[in-house]
Amino acid sequence: MRTFLRNNRGLLVFLFCLGLFRTAIADWNPVPTGSMRPTILEGDVVLVNRLAYDLKIPLTDISLARLGDPQRGDIITFSSPKDGTRLIKRLVAVPGDVVELRDNALRINGQPVQLSNMTLVSEPVGSGQFVEATRYTENLDGKDHAVQFLSSTGSRRDFGPVVVPPDQFFMMGDNRDNSEDSRYIGFVSRDLLIGRAGRILVSADIKNNWKPRFDRVISTLH
Hints:
The protein has helices at residues 2-7, 9-24, 182-185, and strands spanning 26-30, 44-49, 54-56, 63-66, 75-79, 86-93, 98-102, 105-108, 111-112, 114-126, 129-140, 143-150, 159-163, 168-172, 188-189, 193-205, 211-212, 219-220.
């Protein structure tokens, strides 16, 4: 064992530093589901800034210092309050906000969130099946991003109104009719936030023989 450690000291130090980097500073997360379509596709690998909100003790949820406040529209990775699964969603409501959904129309503090640029698409739902979908540009706090609504779904299109408690956040997927988000898992506490996703590093179509998507490499998330 001592010989192994001596002969591989450089590699072990590198792996330790890499692990520390990924658990405390930045991380990269493959996305296996379509809950954030069309913004994030299955097979995208996103870069996550773990220092966007808190400096935490590696491998824990213990915050040593608050470095920033989550903002509406941020794309955030977090641990599900339901079962601890790592999820990625968009933050739509911050502490003190009143959030409401009526027939999929999002309202924050009594004001409707603006939708524009409607387009119709055919959306894959697995096993070679497709459903009709409607995509819009949603404007949240002056920032535009894409959202999608499926024509055939059993999702929760009416919700609230509810007030977001202190140090809690309300998350939703951009694929509004195919996302297990705060409508189902509840509010997400700040200590469960992992970091803010800002870019797609690489991407492969996991539903089409892992074909690379070169047009998505190093692209910025909105």
